[in-house]
Design a protein that fits this description.
By secondary structure, the protein is mainly α. Helix content is 71%, strand content 0%. The protein has one domain (21-272). The chain contains 14 helices and no strands. The protein starts with 20 loop residues before the first helix and ends in an 8-residue tail after the last helix.
Amino acid sequence: MPIHDQSYRHYGGRREPQGRAWIVIALAGIRNIIRKRLFIGLLLMAWVPFVVYAVQFYLAATIPQASAFLAPTAERFRSFFEWQGLFVFFITVWVGAGLIANDRRANALQIYLSKPLARSEYVAGKLMILVSFLLLVTWVPGMLLLVLQVAFAGNFTFVRTNPFVIPAITLYSFLQVLVASFTMLALSSLSKSGRYVAILYAAAVLFSHAVFGVVSLVTRSTSLSWLSFLANLSQVGDVVFRLRPHYATPWPVSVLAIIVLIAVSILILERRVRGVEVVR
C-alpha cells in the first residue's frame, strides 16, 4: 500500500490579485437577482417611461405641429428622472433590503470576513449589486434617450444648445443612485430581517417627506425641505438641470444634507460590518 507524502508543499494554483474579491460578490449577487422573473418584469416596467419619451421625441422630430409641445428640453429630461424615481424606490427595496441582512441572519459575515477579504471589499461588492440595477433604470435610459433624440433629429442642435445636459444626466443619476444605495445598505446592516429593512427604508423616505409636508403647511414655507429625503434630491436635480428649484431651501443646504446622509450611512456600515459582533 503506497504511502503518500503529506508534508508541506507550495500552492500550485493560480493566485488572484488582491482587491478583486468585491467583483465576485457583485457578480454572484447580480446573477441571483436576475433569476427572479418578477424582478425582470419590474425592470421592464421601469423602461416604460423611456419608451413614452422616445416616442415623444420621434413625433417632435417628424411632425412639425408636434414639436411645439413635444420638443426635447432640459425640463423634459428632468421630468423623466422624476418618473424613474418611483422605480428607483421599488428596486432599492427589492434588491437592497436583504443584501447584508440575509448574511447577518445566516451568520455569513463570519465566513466572508474570515477569508482574506477586507470589509471595504465586502461592502463594495454588495453596493455594486444595487448600484448596477439602479443605473440600469436611471443613467442608461437617460443617456440612451439623448442618443435617440440626436438620431431622430438628425443633428446635434439640442446637445450644442444644452451642453450641460450630458453631465446633468450623469451627475443626477449617480447622486440619486448613491444616496439610495448607501442608505439602504446601512439600514440592511442594522437588522437580520430583509422585510423589516424594507419597511424601515420605506418609512424613512415617506415619513421624512410627510414631516416636511406638515411643517410646510404650518409655516407656509418650503424653506425646511432639507428635512425630506426626496425633497433634497429634487432640489439638487432642479439645480443640476438649470431649472427653477421647487423649494425655498438654498440648494447648498440640500447638498449638505445629502452628504451628511451618505456619511452617516458609511459610519453605520463601518460599525456594523464586522466578522465578530462585539456585545458591550
